[in-house]
Amino acid sequence: MRNRFTLYIAIALLLGLVAGTLLHARIGDAQQLATVVANLGLVTDVFLRLIRMIIAPLVFSTLVSGIAHMGDSRALGRVGVRSIGWFLMASLLSLLLGIVMVSALRPGAGLSLPNLTAAAGVPAGSLTLKEFVNHLVPRSIAEAMANNEILQIVVFAGFFGTAVAALGERARRVLEFTEQLAQVMLKVTGYVMLFAPVAVLAAVSATVGAHGLGILATYGRFIGGFYLSLGLLWLVLVGLGYLVLRRRIFELVRLIREPVLLAFSTASSEAAYPKTMEQLVRFGASERISSFVLPLGYSFNLDGSMMYCTFATLFIAQVYGVELG
Questions:
Q1: What is the pTM of this model?
Q2: Domain for residue 297, yes or no?
Q3: Nearest in space to 273 (alpha carbons), one of 157, 206, 185, 147
Q4: CATH of the domain at 62
């Protein structure tokens, strides 16, 4: 199953395109089609809920184990500083590349969308520094886990793991418990991943079934330009990785094909997290390092999402002819 997982996801993706096209062509009644699409969406929703079910305990247990096994605060500080440095560099790179590419490709030029004053149906809001800092620290770890607030879980796990490491032998049983919890959650993750191809099939079928293959052409310029930008970002990041890992970077790219394809087909980075953790260990990365760095990256370094924000913002500005200085 492990070696064929990527193949199964790819097959599910293709079958979803075929099934969605047939649904869109054969079911003429709009209400009936909406019912079928909603039922297919239920499969994807259940899968994503299963993923969210395991994310909080998985992040907490692996991060605490990783921090506790660092040994001393200096090692933890070195890894943390290097990780944050990489995150800042990659984040700035993704934002700048997104701005450059959308400005060069101009995918929104010439498109006609609803009037600028039309209601979008999305509640407007702002985020101040005070709100961000308040949100950063959990009021309760139980509340943070219940709401899957990963950043808050990371903050609590950082304090908890550091305390476990400082207590040493007196906290040995606590560390053993978190290690065992991490192993159990990784096993649960394996069970949940068995449903991934079915979820991919349902998700693609629902999208194409509701809008037809024409949805791909309608947003082709925007999506095509964005994927081109993502591809360039990947090339740059892989090139930087080559400076450190040399030819092994290509092995790493091969191993993370599965979580990348899973995230793409389900439109959820949460779906990719558990599989990425597993593949990093298979690659040979230290489990204590990967269990510390990956949750941090999951919270602070969503490069694709940041590039999409810049790309989509300037795309909308181009559509409505808003000149940005």
A1: 0.66
A2: yes
A3: 185
A4: 1.10.3860.10
The token pair that represents 120 in the structure block: 């979008």
CB 70 within 8 A of CB 79: yes
Dist. CA 191–CA 206, nearest whole Å: 24
Q: Report helix, strand or coil for 324.
A: coil
Q: What is the rounded CA–CA span in Å between residue 4 and residue 108?
A: 39
- Cα 253 off chain centre by: 16
Q: How much of the chain is helix, strand and coil, in % rounded to 5?
A: 80, 0, 20
Give the Cα separation of 63 and 179 in Å (integer). 10
Q: Which residue is listed with tokens 């970002």? A: 233
Average pLDDT rounded to a whole number, residues 149-161: 86
**Nearest-5° angle of CA 197, CA 38, CA 44?**
25
Write out the two tokens for 287: 């489990």
Report if residue 243 sits inside a domain: yes
CB 65 within 8 A of CB 291: yes
In a domain, 48, yes or no: no
Q: Which of 62, 58, 40 is nearest to 266 (CA)?
A: 40
Looking at residue 96, its amino acid is L
Under DSSP, the state recorded for 169 is G
**How confident is the model at residue 113, as a pLDDT?**
57
Answer whether 35's CB lies under 8 Å from 209's CB: no
pLDDT single digits (tens) 308-325: 888 888 888 887 777 776
State the total domains in the chain.
Answer: 1
